[in-house]
Write a structure and sequence with these properties.
Strand content: 35-45%
Structural class: mainly beta
Number of helices: 3
Number of domains: 1
Radius of gyration: 18 Å
Shape: globular
């Protein structure tokens, strides 16, 4: 696989603690992101991972559903497969404490979920999310019925640290945002978009920024107001986008890609949604 940054090995120290809790089925919405209770954690300091689904970097907490899980993994001083530890129907997906200052990346991949929208709403969705190819194909075919798709989620979050390879090493998700450097360290972040292991050109990439609380940590996304995208652009011919993220805050970079469904009995289209959250 081509990478936005060459990868290094992970450390060997274990995490001090990992405890996974559990999930329930999410409803269709736009962005889906991993939300740590804190992005900056000292050694041994507990971090809780929740998930939100919604628009404008605002939305309710999403419970975890084991029947939708494909991968749930943490890469820190060493890597852990977390999906086997999950129980259903809890709002906190994971609790852990880092064992060093190197940082941690968590990644989640879901299976496909079917979604059907009325024709007008489906075409508005395609237009608003930059899915121009799917919209053009639908119109060229004269399709005027409901839009039937199956969608999957590929979400990542970075907990601040100094070991660059933990951030820049791809997980191999089917649709993935791979940073070229430690997210939040610099005022510009180069990311590379991959679809099924190959750089994905022409993808609409967007970034949102939310303010931090008085203590310098993230605000619960279910309580803060929605915000407009801070930036958007399409990935270049190598799937790369350069994201300006100079302002202090919680950031989310997201992208979506849609193709004809490979299982036409299940849906006409399939979309893959990727996100990456971090703190600047």
């Amino acid at each position: 696989m081509t990478r936005a940054q060459s990868c290094g090995g992970t450390g060997s120290a274990a995490l001090l603690a990992i405890l996974l809790l559990g999930p329930a089925a999410p409803a269709f919405a736009h962005e889906f992101w991993l939300a740590p209770s804190r992005y900056v954690a000292s050694r041994g300091e507990a971090v809780e991972i929740r998930v939100h689904v919604g628009d404008g970097f605002h939305g309710p907490i999403q419970s975890y559903a084991t029947n939708r899980a494909v991968r749930f993994e943490l890469r820190a001083a060493r890597s852990f497969g977390l999906d086997s530890l999950v129980r259903n129907h809890a709002p906190i997906w994971a609790r852990f404490a880092p064992s060093d200052s190197g940082g941690a990346m968590l990644a989640w991949e879901s299976g496909f979920t079917r979604n059907e929208l009325p024709a007008a709403r489906f075409e508005t969705y395609l237009k608003d999310d930059g899915l121009d190819s799917a919209l053009a194909q639908r119109r060229a075919e004269g399709a005027d019925g409901p839009g039937v798709e199956r969608y999957r989620r590929c979400a990542k979050t970075w907990l601040a640290g100094t070991t660059e390879s933990r951030a820049t090493d791809p997980f191999g998700l089917p649709f993935e945002i791979v940073p070229a450097a430690i997210p939040g360290r610099d005022s510009m972040l180069s990311v590379q978009i991959f679809y099924e292991g190959r750089p994905a050109p022409g993808i609409l990439v967007r970034a949102w920024r939310a303010s931090l609380d008085s203590g310098g940590g993230p605000i619960d996304a279910s309580e803060r107001p929605a915000v407009d995208p801070a930036w958007s652009a399409r990935s270049d011919g190598n799937g790369i986008a350069l994201v300006p993220c100079a302002s202090r805050g919680e950031w989310m970079i997201s992208a979506v890609h849609m193709v004809r469904s490979r299982d036409r009995a299940a849906a006409d289209w399939e979309s893959s949604w990727a996100s990456l959250t971090f703190q600047r």
